[in-house]
Amino acid sequence: MVQVDTRFSITAAKADEWVPIRPGADGALTLGIAYVIINDELYDKDFVAQRTFGFEDWTDEEGVQHIGFKTLVLRDYVPSQVEAITGVPAETITRIAREFATTRPAVAIGDRGISMWSNGVFNQMAVHSLNALVGSIDTHGGVLAQREAPFLPWPELAPDPLAEEGRAQPRVDHAGTRRYPLAGDVYQQLPESIAEDATYPVNALFLYYTNPLFSSPQVGRFYEAFEKVPFVVSFSPFLDDSTAYADLILPDHTYLERLQDVALPSSLGYPVVGLGQPAVAPLFDTRHTGDVLLEIAHGLGEPVPRAFLWRSFAEVVQYRISGLWRSEQGDITATEFDFFWEEFARRSVCSDPSYNFGEWGRVLATPSGRFEFYSQTLRDELAKVAGGDLEGLLEELGVRPRGDEVYLPHYEPPGAVGDPADTRCHGEPRSHHWRHPRLHL
């Protein structure tokens, strides 16, 4: 076990080897390892040929030539060059690469630490490319593709009248826009958007078990935002910093008093669903936040109530869980849902521990149906957001390469807030409005 880390962490202390690295340089190190594996022809040639896309140079249907992962790595990531970027000796890179490629199965894991840099997307692409090189995808001892629990899908939503009239409001956090094209949500953006009315005035803010006035890295920005929101509601059962600042407190039950479905995060490969049930009756006059939101939804004008078909949160949980029963999979089976629910409530867990290897349509759900060194998904998403101005978008995001390299794993120097030339230890940095690249997951 080799731990690559900027510090001597607990994991590094327990690993066989700790490899110190300069912050944000993980992608470069990974590609230096890939260089040795490819150059020494230690990669899994069968897996790469049959299950990957973009390894070799290729010509598309329009006759345009593209460079592949192999060409890019052998051109730009010689271990001596990588040493200058990462601080990891070339000899160490070469040795680890050969150990990794000749000890099967081998797995490369990039956790959230390398994703939290401005180059996080490319860092993760680079790390996962090592698994493809040695064929450690959907195999015993390799990386598995999580099978999701078969929850019953949410009902179809009624058309939004505002959207039909062309008056739909954009997202206040800019997720899915030119600013954050790959993001599902960007809560870190909220204080800036609210404080500066960057999108539109926010008239209400609901807080559910969150305390940004304490846990945020920039607490001051959240205070500015809270000052501008006329109505703040907290559902916390604890009088934390943000709850004390709220206009209205609607405390939820504590975890021992609350019904809650618990879907296991991606980890085992197969789905596991838990059920948190009340162990004691509520001690005080509290209400489940789900029930409060349902009541609010039913009090709003159409078409909102039609999107919330349930009278209680308990009904919501049973609705979603009924998908497990209908799938006829897992370790609980019953002819009637009532019997299924009774057994599920008794066990408080339902799982389907089977895993079938080789379901490539599920495992490699990409446009090519293969592991993509050259990410067509990234290419298509950026093109969709760019609206014909890809050059401008890449410039705004701070992405330096151009052409095929944008969609291949590559090293992107990490950005940082502030002016690197400013070495002062106090006061406001001279260029605190400078923005680092924002190609966030």
How would you characterize this protein structure?
The chain is mainly alpha-helical. The chain has three domains: 2-144 and 358-407, 3-Layer(aba) Sandwich (Dimethylsulfoxide Reductase, domain 2); 148-168 and 252-354, no CATH class; 186-248, Rossmann fold. The protein has helices at residues 10-14, 26-39, 45-51, 69-76, 79-86, 90-102, 112-115, 120-133, 161-164, 190-195, 212-215, 219-228, 241-245, 289-299, 313-327, 337-347, 360-363, 376-386, 390-397; strands at 2-5, 17-20, 52-53, 58-59, 65-66, 204-207, 231-234, 248-249, 260-263, 272-276, 349-351, 371-372. Residues 426-438 have low confidence and may be disordered.
List strands and helices in order, with pairings.
Layout: E1 2-5, H1 10-14, E2 17-20, H2 26-39, H3 45-51, E3 52-53, E4 58-59, E5 65-66, H4 69-76, H5 79-86, H6 90-102, H7 112-115, H8 120-133, H9 161-164, H10 190-195, E6 204-207, H11 212-215, H12 219-228, E7 231-234, H13 241-245, E8 248-249, E9 260-263, E10 272-276, H14 289-299, H15 313-327, H16 337-347, E11 349-351, H17 360-363, E12 371-372, H18 376-386, H19 390-397
Helix pairs in contact: 2-5, 2-6, 2-8, 5-6, 18-19
Quickly list its features:
Dimethylsulfoxide Reductase, domain 2, 3-stranded antiparallel sheet, 37% helix
Summarize the structure.
This protein is mainly alpha-helical. It contains 19 helices and twelve strands. The protein has three domains: 2-144 and 358-407, Dimethylsulfoxide Reductase, domain 2 (3-Layer(aba) Sandwich); 148-168 and 252-354, no CATH class; 186-248, 3-Layer(aba) Sandwich (Rossmann fold), CATH 3.40.50.740.
